[in-house]
Amino acid sequence: MAVVMKGMEVAKSMKNELIFRVEKLKESGIIPSLAILRVGEKEEDLSYERGAKKRLEGLGVVCETAVLPEDVTQEDFEKKFDELNVSNKVHGILVFQPLPKHLNIEPVKERIHPRKDVDGMSPVNMGRVFANDKKGVAPCTPAGVIEMLKHFEIPIEGKEVVIVGRSSVVGKPLSILFLQENATVTICHTRTKNLEDTCKGAEILVAAAGVPKMIKASMVSEGCVVVDVGINVDEEGKLCGDVDYEQVEPLASYISPTPGGTGSVTSSVLAKHVIESAES
Amino acid sequence: MAVVMKGMEVAKSMKNELIFRVEKLKESGIIPSLAILRVGEKEEDLSYERGAKKRLEGLGVVCETAVLPEDVTQEDFEKKFDELNVSNKVHGILVFQPLPKHLNIEPVKERIHPRKDVDGMSPVNMGRVFANDKKGVAPCTPAGVIEMLKHFEIPIEGKEVVIVGRSSVVGKPLSILFLQENATVTICHTRTKNLEDTCKGAEILVAAAGVPKMIKASMVSEGCVVVDVGINVDEEGKLCGDVDYEQVEPLASYISPTPGGTGSVTSSVLAKHVIESAES
């Protein structure tokens, strides 16, 4: 029986320290504050927003959403963004992505103040994380994976880590974070020829491919630590991860469920990044 | 018998196109120009400088060195750098590293104009390369490895690539470049437990660890493509790579020698980056 790595446990253990830091900030008259910039009313955005707002406000972090209409022009989108980017009341900005197709996120990525870039989307932050510069802010999801493993006291140093998926928001930054923890890291993707064997070589397997239940029992060695970053909807309309949980759980030593796994850590990391920005 | 991948062959094949592009620039009154910023008279720097100068000037690219004394202050170092960074006659800046210990490279890395950053040392360029943004400039050495493999028409897509070494100038950026070519990439380093087996799984093995002759025959599968990025001095005072060439060559299908291998491609890539900057 695998130990189930529940995200809420990780979030809880981060809570006390974060509340303490918010109190310290408030004593110096600073109220840490996140601005969410949302275009339109997409259900995924709204659902993430509700969760993040609840988590952040529970820690004493202010969370305000600027909503723009679905058909906002690039100019008005950038104008709103720039307001938040210069405001000294805003410590962090989270722009929901993907944007509607007529909008281009790039100018905003290049322009966001590195300290306000709490989800690590700017090239400057990616480059800093890449160069192991402590000032760098990593995207919240991959940073949450590392938080989760550390919370469960899973050794990372020297381990064979296999990451399935090479996105710029999860797979690639996560590979860098694992390297910094002295893991041996392999990144697989759709063009990987021998995915099954490669995954079987993993001591820690991270699924971040965005393909429902693609990680099967045949791909996992006994005792493997399995972290599922995928959030998908299965054929019955239920949330599921990239891991076929029922098949894989009996083999794993530790496994994160979906829902209730890594996703619940992401918003705590987001809060931490806003607090760090307010402290700096 | 392995095919020996000579760097000069790659450089030669890049030459015609680069000369053509320099001619086009000159027709519009632009002379592509690199400024080298060197502190002190270290032999490695001087040797690299001679090679780069010869290569660049052979292509019609102007190459001027600003030399500062070994004991220059941080302030004077940055002042000189800023001069080059704002000059509209300079299209690229190469700062020799490592600097003497009393100097800090970081402010300069953060401040260099992304287009002038022809060796991809700034966080912005690293972040852009990371995010697969075409504007990103990769460091010359890893970019040269990909040039070399392409020149020899070695397929990369779907291949198992193992990189030994995780430096910010070679190993890490190279892993990203290989991912963009759709390889399955594993990064090893000193903390990797089972280096021999991991290396044996490689179809393309890149040695970038900075340890003389560490890649032995027992670590290489028959038919492997072996790329050596190391430049070291052996016990007899001769230049050698990270690969034990005599042991490994009979097993490899392709192998790059040291000297005369990847190093000779680096300065052609540098020239290309200066020309691209002048064109933009």
TrEMBL record, chains A, B:
**Family to which the UniProt record says this protein belongs:** Belongs to the tetrahydrofolate dehydrogenase/cyclohydrolase family.
Q: Name one Pfam family in it.
A: THF_DHG_CYH
The answer to keyword Magnesium applying to this record is: no
Q: In which pathway does it act?
A: One-carbon metabolism; tetrahydrofolate interconversion
Q: Which EC number(s) are documented for this chain?
A: 1.5.1.5, 3.5.4.9
Q: Which residues belong to any copy of the Tetrahydrofolate dehydrogenase/cyclohydrolase catalytic domain?
A: 5-119
The protein's name:
Bifunctional protein FolD
> What residues does the Tetrahydrofolate dehydrogenase/cyclohydrolase NAD(P)-binding domain cover?
139-279
Q: Which InterPro entries match?
A: Aminoacid_DH-like_N_sf (IPR046346), NAD(P)-bd_dom_sf (IPR036291), THF_DH/CycHdrlase (IPR000672), THF_DH/CycHdrlase_cat_dom (IPR020630), THF_DH/CycHdrlase_NAD-bd_dom (IPR020631)
Free-text function comment from the UniProt entry: Catalyzes the oxidation of 5,10-methylenetetrahydrofolate to 5,10-methenyltetrahydrofolate and then the hydrolysis of 5,10-methenyltetrahydrofolate to 10-formyltetrahydrofolate.
PANTHER family, A to Z: C-1-TETRAHYDROFOLATE SYNTHASE, CYTOPLASMIC, C-1-TETRAHYDROFOLATE SYNTHASE, CYTOPLASMIC-RELATED
Q: Which SUPFAM superfamilies match?
A: Aminoacid dehydrogenase-like, N-terminal domain (SSF53223), NAD(P)-binding Rossmann-fold domains (SSF51735)
What species is this protein from? Aequitasia blattaphilus
Binding residues annotated for NADP(+), in chain numbering: 165-167, 231
Q: Where is the signal peptide?
A: none
> What keywords are annotated for this sequence in UniProt?
Amino-acid biosynthesis, Histidine biosynthesis, Hydrolase, Methionine biosynthesis, Multifunctional enzyme, NADP, One-carbon metabolism, Oxidoreductase, Purine biosynthesis
